Amino acid sequence: MSFQARITDALKQSMLAKDTERTGTLRLIKAALGYAQIEKKVDVLPDADVLAVIQREAKKRKDAIDEYEKAGRAELAAKEQSELKVIADFLPQPLSMEEVEALVREAIAEVGATSKKDMGLVMKAAQAKAAGRADGKALSAVVGRLLP
């Protein structure tokens, strides 16, 4: 079953269960996927593109939570947090720090990086290997630490 089909099924289930909060969040995801389909001019998005859209939506929620907490708007931060929990159900399991470090070491060896000048090449290879399961900031920090 494709990512998009899983989201559609989850939306149907939440509508049948009358879970308005989950239904609203899933509708937002479906809308974002619809915009991505229009942008790419395809009928069905590949799973990699669906994952990218879901990750982008999760990042929006995380940023909004930070901003609402800075502004002292706890009720809005709580709403965004509940949406993030629904979105997180569709994200792959994140890599541990040990796994990230091993992945970066692999990317360094693969690219043949010898100094910080090669950081861009290593980041590109590491992000491809991580396939959305590691944060770019975490990858960057590990790459910066491991490169001489």
What labels describe this entry?
76% helix, globular, single chain, 148 residues, Arc Repressor Mutant, subunit A, 7 helices, mainly alpha
SS element count, helices: 7
Strand content: under 5%
Largest sheet: none
* Overall 3D form: globular
Give structural notes.
This protein has 148 residues and is mostly helical. It folds into two domains: 3-88, Uncharacterised protein YqeY/AIM41, N-terminal domain (Hypothetical Protein Yqey, Chain: A, domain1, Orthogonal Bundle); 97-146, Arc Repressor Mutant, subunit A (Orthogonal Bundle), CATH 1.10.10.410. The chain is 76% helix and 0% strand. It has seven helices and no strands. It has helices at 3-16, 20-40, 47-70, 74-88, 97-111, 119-130, 136-146. It is globular.
What topology does this entry show?
Elements: H1 3-16, H2 20-40, H3 47-70, H4 74-88, H5 97-111, H6 119-130, H7 136-146
Compact description:
With 148 residues, the protein is mainly alpha-helical. The protein has helices spanning 3-16, 20-40, 47-70, 74-88, 97-111, 119-130, 136-146.
